[in-house]
Amino acid sequence: SIDGQRLWSSLMAMAEIGATPNGGSNRLALTQEDAAGRHLLIEWCEEIGCQVRVDGVGNLFIRRPGKRNDLKPVATGSHLDTQPKGGRFDGVLGVLAGLEVFRSLHDHNVVTERPLELIVWTNEEGSRFAPAMVASGTYAGVFAVEETLARQDANGVTFGQALEETGFKGSLPIGEPQLASFFELHIEQGPVLEEEELAIGVVTGVQGMRWFDLTIHGNAAHAGTTPMSYRQDALAAAARLIDRLYTHAVYDTSGDTKVTFGCLEIDTPSRNVIPANVSLTVDLRHVVDEQLDILEERLRSELADITGTFGVAVNLERTWASPVVKFDEQCVAALERAAKCHGIPYRRMMSGAGHDAVYVSRVAPTAMLFIPCRDGISHNEAEYSTPEHCALGAQTLCDALIENANS
Amino acid sequence: SIDGQRLWSSLMAMAEIGATPNGGSNRLALTQEDAAGRHLLIEWCEEIGCQVRVDGVGNLFIRRPGKRNDLKPVATGSHLDTQPKGGRFDGVLGVLAGLEVFRSLHDHNVVTERPLELIVWTNEEGSRFAPAMVASGTYAGVFAVEETLARQDANGVTFGQALEETGFKGSLPIGEPQLASFFELHIEQGPVLEEEELAIGVVTGVQGMRWFDLTIHGNAAHAGTTPMSYRQDALAAAARLIDRLYTHAVYDTSGDTKVTFGCLEIDTPSRNVIPANVSLTVDLRHVVDEQLDILEERLRSELADITGTFGVAVNLERTWASPVVKFDEQCVAALERAAKCHGIPYRRMMSGAGHDAVYVSRVAPTAMLFIPCRDGISHNEAEYSTPEHCALGAQTLCDALIENANS
Ligand SMILES: NC(=O)NCCC(=O)O
Ligand SMILES: NC(=O)NCCC(=O)O
């Protein structure tokens, strides 16, 4: 069985890299902090005899050999990058739980039939380079490599440049190695497990999500002299849109509609100037693809409405669409068996967040498991999961990996 | 009579300093561009024998001696600083029209009884250092000198540091010289004169205005996993507030209520993070002080409302309140006589914008005159007034100055 205390120590050690004032971590994808986190992990893995390979978009593949190395590996992993003010568990737990499984097997001199593979996917968060899960998506063939390398951050630095600068452009061909199966442990990032006092969520799928870049173009004018009826106020138009969509989501009593405007910027802000140009991002989610279509239509019709009302022009670009995902039933069942066998209270559930498992599920049998996090809070420095829940998650993961690697 | 073509040439020459791609000017207060504009003006004034003095907050006092230099001067002027994407006329016209009056008097060897004073007030726009008209307000004793010098721009640079860096911290005591009267020519910055096909507006007063700094504090959380009912979305709360206040202003059929949110910033924006902290600026205006009180109460009650609805905390700071101003009736009448005498079609009107004349009117008899600007647009690179209107404005100003300086 795994060592919960050792797992906790590695989590806390990793959190030191890019530590933020309020107890979180800042390791935006492919920054020096992200690179330092990766180097620490590689050091730990090499200590127990694992071999590290890096593919062309910086994904790390860390192998623990089995008895039958001609067979495809059973894989686990997640990501080490964080939000700009992120927590210490989002992504990191899935990676370090995999390390803890490897360490425990090492301690007990266990060699599985199939090899095991611990994977660190690059730029999962999508905060530096949009969209999220871009490198697992590239591995799975959803995004072309050249397209991924050309993606730019807010300062115009490309993914490719950032890979070179951090030394994580590897030579392993994209799509290799193929996997027998993939299991990802993650914190829930929502309130359900905590509320229902469950220690494990067995994740059966992931809701659909769509990202948009939106610009609204009005006209700059004087705040004091311009009659309200003459204004083309891009910010007032944006505010109407945000309020309408937000209210629409709040009034969906099923709770399945989610609308977030995460970024908003005025091009040349000045207190006494009516904002001329506003750019914002839109994140729409739903557990049913058809409902997501309807939600997107709603966005478009509200946009048409503000165009008329505020005399503004709008430009909406859909930059990402990730359909609803259903995970592999056998992988789901394996996780369920592991939880049951330890008597851990669990439930089946859908994920509200995107995860690398979403794209990996296109090329290998995949499932995920969640542990609770305090107040359901994530993407926040205050993110927290207890050492006990982390250990239970890692133990469940360990059992499912061993079962799959030996069958 | 003044030389309209020469006035136009000086306007175009000044516009070269800090010229922006779309035909405007960027000479934010006390930047190198602002300093370069001032040096050009000083050069022009010294060529015709004027003497330049600078006070402790960078206001320039440029004197053309009269026959009775023991008498208080009759003054004119405005400002040379601009919005970040400002026009070529806002402020500049009032300064260069004064220069043109001096040049014309010089050409014709006219010496007035009283001396004349051309004044350039520092940081009128309020875009770099809030509030607006801060240096004319300091001259008039409304703001303490130390307070003005300590005001900071968005990067934390103080007004005092910027004065030292540009070399415009002068030794003339604040409040000197006292003025016999003050006349300010400005573009209207609104649509009224153009619509009514009038060449001159004789300004009888200025509406009241209040500036606020507002912060809204919610909680960062994951865009995909956080149920709508759990959110404390600071941006959605801001959007509700903006929409409510904007709509309130639009529905005031008198057209006298004006509401502008010029700046809005999310502290750590990320596409898939619910915004935790949003800071914004509020600009409220009305022609009646009691109505402005009611408008401010409305702002406070809408804020109380979003606090409850969105579970956010708010902090509202009123940083500036400029009450409704009534200009001096004799100065107004002098401008009216000058317009009439040239047969220029004019009307009396209130100003929607703040001007240095607002504060000067507290310590000297003051009035203003406006000329039309295209489509009423100002605080925009596209701002435009015709050479003919500029000349008519300068001529009217010239007549009023001479009449006052000789009586
Ligand atoms: N797990 C996670 O936070 N992924 C980022 C992608 C998303 O926004 O869902
Ligand atoms: N004239 C002018 O634009 N002044 C700035 C102060 C204001 O916002 O009214």
TrEMBL record, chains A, B:
Domain of life from the UniProt record: Bacteria
Q: Which UniProt keywords apply?
A: Hydrolase
The question of whether Hydrolase is a record keyword is answered with: yes
Pfam families noted in UniProt? M20_dimer, Peptidase_M20
Q: Which InterPro entries match?
A: Amidase_Cbmase, Bact_exopeptidase_dim_dom, Peptidase_M20, Peptidase_M20_dimer
Q: Where in the numbering of this chain does the Peptidase M20 dimerisation domain appear?
A: 205-305
Which Gene3D superfamilies did the record assign? 3.30.70.360, Zn peptidases
Q: Please give the family membership noted in the entry.
A: Belongs to the peptidase M20 family.
What name does the UniProt record give this protein? M20 family metallo-hydrolase
**UniProt lineage:** Bacteria, Pseudomonadati, Pseudomonadota, Gammaproteobacteria, Oceanospirillales
